[in-house]
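User: structure tokens for this one?
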Amino acid sequence: MTLVDLPNTTSLDAEVAATAAPSKAAPGSNPTLVLLALAMGGFAIGTTEFAAMSLLPDFAPDLGLDAPTAGHVISAYALGVVVGAPVIAVLAAKVARRTLLISLMCLFAVGNGLSALAPTYGWMLAFRFLAGVPHGAYFGVAALVAASLVPRERRSQAVSRVLLGLTIATVVGVPLANGIGQFVGWRWSFGLVALLALLTAVLVRVHAPLGEPAEGASPLRELGALKRGQVWLTLATGAIGFGGLFSVYTYLASTLLEVTHASPAAIPAVLAVFGLGMTIGNLVCAWAADRVQMPAAGATLVWSAATLALYPFASANLWTLTPTVFLIGCGCGLATILQTRLMDVAEDAQTLAAALNHSAFNVANALGPWLAGMALAAGFGLPATGWVGVALALGGLAIWAISVSLDRRSSAAT
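Assistant:
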């Protein structure tokens, strides 16, 4: 199959039915408790992913690093996500989903626990890479488990409950970890995340369904996802379109200090507002995706482009910047929409496609700041990060349009 090939509809319907079918439940389990357990893992992951950025000024001097070198620690985690998601999804194709989720959370706990004990820069790089390895696979498998608990028309909302843990982490977990880092020490912040991961493993073991692998599951079948053009288009939509959010988020604190001239004390509050927007956007977009999936994705990208275009004009004043940041954060709901889109186009390679979604978003996490940094190096100023975001959102929208066009052509042909 070529890059523009579309999935066979008969196979797709069978796989969707399998995904939506109830899993073998653990004794006494119920969907609410399962989703809560899965969201706890998202909370732990979100806390370490975003808090590590704010803890950089604390662990850099302790490890004898300058700021740019310490930034490589953040990149090491992202690299772990990009590498770990597809590798684990393929190698663990025959593992029951509950068993896999528990194993991933234990590995995540080990990575963060070792990060708390890292004696040198080299070890810190290795441990942060290790901590990132389970990230994408956990979210991918958790999304499939969540979708299996509810009827097909509510899949996106179930997936959004898992991602709700991550978005709430930006409002609660990150300030908590940052506070612990400042008052007790940065090592305790990573230790806290390790404890949250172990708690997640226990909750998943108690409440989650076993989730036996699908009949005929194999590494080779999972790799079949890479042959499907719509899978690649969906991943590219996220990798490009979501980069705009990160281009602004990465330099938001600097913008507040140097452009808005806000007090340093305002930074945690504005970041929390950003997280609140992510949380609400996640819920609203999930509701829309269960009704009109691809139109919801396109509308979210248009929303992102429009709100990012407001950023350069709003950045001079705290009272205009804060609501704009909230609106930009709402664009985070794209993640949930694309997660369920991948369930529809991956046919019988669900696990790999679902996990790759988070690899794509970590590509966005690297691409957005890199392009924004180029704009800053060219002398355009911090507000210009908003225009970089607009360009990326529109790039994602263009890829989305190609995907929709191919869907329509396929429907017309049948």
